[in-house]
Design a protein that fits this description.
Length: about 325
């Protein structure tokens, strides 16, 4: 299939206008979106005006803005030409990163060529910000990684995707996902059901992430065989986690002792990822967070990677980033 959008933009003779021609009108319709909503999104974010005439798009605005718009449109069109879907998050990611074409190489080859993508059984995960790109690369370069930043930045989601990828490729034999159940000493006892039924609500975000990457039947079978485990942090004590990909989520709610216990579970052939948000500590007042302690103690240890996110990396609703920024301003005051 020809992709003439990847050829140089047409010379219109107008210094404030750039024109792109697309070979496949069906892909162009998907690129523009229903009622041209994708183009409207690009116009709003990049400060350009985009007019559609047949299989041509005319982009008007300042030179730098037009150049970004051209790169973004070409990257999105290439994605569609490869048979991929185009969702709202993909538009935002392309706007943030510009042209970052995804090839069909293996995972390591993609990293060497600068293109980053995590492939799982159900979907492929493409980092949407520079911080997410660096974090994804670090997950495959270091045996122990920390992802620290506000909610909605993809810290846990990308870590679980990497775990599923490495499991599917045979690099690890098990996936173990964990979270501290910080209220287990008091409120859980009043909930109905056995221990698993009491704990499961705390673990639900991890189940949700796995469901995005593995077919339901396969996931159920792997969990039944205990090749995939989801367990509270307290259940990690005394274990040696060899040949496993281990993720500790909400690590800001682990105590210093729990964090040390967890980190020392790392066994041969394993990868470990610790994610957390320093602004959402639910530990009792006066009890220091194990995440902050680990960050201080391990910052210069070889083989440990630290990745940091800000509100600019939030990939949920755009309002979430503004909410986080408002809270940060209030804390500074």
């Amino acid at each position: 299939m020809g992709i003439s959008a990847l050829t140089p933009p047409l010379n219109t003779g107008d210094p404030l206008r750039t024109e792109l021609e697309f070979a496949d009108n069906r892909l162009l319709i998907d690129l523009c979106g229903e009622h041209d909503r994708n183009l409207a999104r690009l116009e709003s974010e990049l400060g350009v005006q985009i007019l559609r005439r047949g299989n041509h798009l005319q982009i008007m605005g300042e030179a730098a803005a037009r150049e970004r718009a051209v790169e973004t449109l070409q990257a999105l069109y290439s994605r569609l030409a490869e048979g991929r879907s185009l969702e709202a998050g993909d538009i935002d990611g392309a706007i943030r990163l510009g042209a970052d074409p995804v090839g069909r190489e293996t995972q390591l080859e993609m990293f060497r060529t600068g293109t980053i993508e995590i492939r799982t059984r159900k979907k492929n995960v493409i980092p949407r910000t520079k911080a997410q790109q660096d974090y994804t690369r670090a997950l495959f370069e270091h045996p122990l990684n920390f992802g620290i930043g506000p909610a909605g930045t993809g810290k846990t989601y990308i870590a679980v995707a990497a775990a599923v990828h490495m499991f599917a490729e045979g690099h690890v034999d098990r996936i173990i996902l964990s979270r501290p159940a910080v209220e287990a000493g008091e409120r859980l006892g009043f909930l109905p059901g056995d221990m698993r039924e009491k704990i499961d609500p705390y673990m639900q975000p991890l189940y949700d992430a796995l469901n995005d990457f593995l077919p339901g039947r396969q996931l159920a079978k792997l969990m039944e065989e205990r090749r995939i485990e989801i367990a509270p942090l307290a259940f990690m004590r005394g274990r040696t986690l060899a040949n496993a990909f281990v993720v500790l989520d909400e690590a800001q709610n682990a105590t210093e002792m729990q964090m040390k216990m967890f980190l020392t579970r790392l066994g041969e052939g394993s990868n470990m990822v610790v994610t957390g948000d320093r602004s959402q500590v639910d530990l009792p007042r006066g009890m220091p967070s194990g995440l902050a302690a680990a960050e201080r103690i391990l910052k210069d240890v070889k083989g440990v990677g630290f990745s940091y996110f800000t509100s600019a990396d939030v990939v949920r609703h755009p309002l979430v980033a503004r909410i986080i920024e408002a809270y940060e301003r209030d804390e500074h005051r």
